[in-house]
Amino acid sequence: MDAEVAIFFTFDGLSIIHRNASELLKLGRGKEHLAAGFQNANVPSVSALLDIAKDCGVRFIGCQMTMDVIGIRREDLIDGVELGGAATFLDFAFDADVSLNF
User: What is the DSSP letter of 57?
Assistant: First the structure.
């Protein structure tokens, strides 16, 4: 789509870019049935989606402050993640036409 994209990962969001994401992102109790739905709908795995995003030039920014607080090290994250604080992301976001937050 020819857009610059950056994603800022903080708190629980760091689990998405963690090397052990497949173990950290298990479906909660009572939602096991969703796994079959994802498979039947051909939804790619989280790691596959991250690879697609990286191939498209998406920047991943891990929150250094949160990592320090909860004890996550750079080596715990997948390759290609930048580290920074909210100011790092805001520097990008201030010039953005669209910003999604959740």
Answer: T
